[in-house]
Amino acid sequence: MKNSFFAILSRMKLINRWGLMRNTRSENLAEHSFDTAYIAHALAVISNTRCGGQVDAGRVVILAMYHDASEIFTGDLPTPVKYFNSGIRGAYKEVEKASLERLLASLPDDIRGSYENVTTPRKEDAELWQIVKAADKLSALVKCIEEEKAGNCEFRRAAAAQEQSLKEMAMPEVDIFIGEFLPAFYLTLDEQEAD
């Protein structure tokens, strides 16, 4: 139905992530998208202020907000399944594309292009999408840290996989975020405020 876009987006809070893992606290798609957006903004700011970048931080935030919007219809397919082999990965990309088209079809024609512009990857945004991808991984790492802090060792291997993947990205802004800001996620609020 036309004009149902925002009602559909509001369902992001109903899509739980980490379906194959025992969670001490569930995380939904809306929470993850918000976390990814503010981390992506931080990476853009770090890139611009410390790494000589010229990143459009506002656009990065918008891309991050919508980066998993297709999962409203697909759910959160676990990473081991999504990347099991190239055939599944390709098929899932097609499912994501169809899901995104379905979502965009719920907009009036006159504003649809504005949302296609922030949900559909474009070549000229490749650097920005790389920042969003890094923020997505950092958000996942933060979730792993939170679970481990709560005594859930089930996230240990996921944390190691995220750390390795982030290291392989070889992005200085990511290294700065990890070195300067990630340690605080291991602390309690009282410990964070003690500095």
Q: How many structurally independent domains?
A: 1
Predict the CATH topology. Hypothetical protein af1432
- Shape, principal axes of CA atoms: globular
Cα(first) to Cα(last) distance is 52 Å
Low-confidence stretches: none
Measured by DSSP, the beta-strand proportion falls in: under 5%
Please identify the structural class as seen in this structure: mainly alpha
How many strand elements? 0
**Biggest beta-sheet profile:** none
CATH architecture identity: Orthogonal Bundle
Report on this structure.
With 195 residues, the chain is an all-alpha fold. The protein has a single domain (5-188), classed as Orthogonal Bundle (Hypothetical protein af1432). Helices cover 65% and strands 0% of the residues. It contains eleven helices and no strands. The chain has helices at residues 5-9, 29-50, 57-66, 71-74, 79-82, 86-104, 109-119, 126-149, 156-169, 172-180, 189-193. Helix 3 crosses helix 8. It is globular, with a radius of gyration of 17 Å. It starts with a helix and ends with a helix. The model has no long low-confidence stretch (mean pLDDT 94).
Topology (elements, then pairings):
Elements: H1 5-9, H2 29-50, H3 57-66, H4 71-74, H5 79-82, H6 86-104, H7 109-119, H8 126-149, H9 156-169, H10 172-180, H11 189-193
List descriptors.
mainly alpha
Give a short summary of the structure:
The protein is mainly α and 195 residues long.
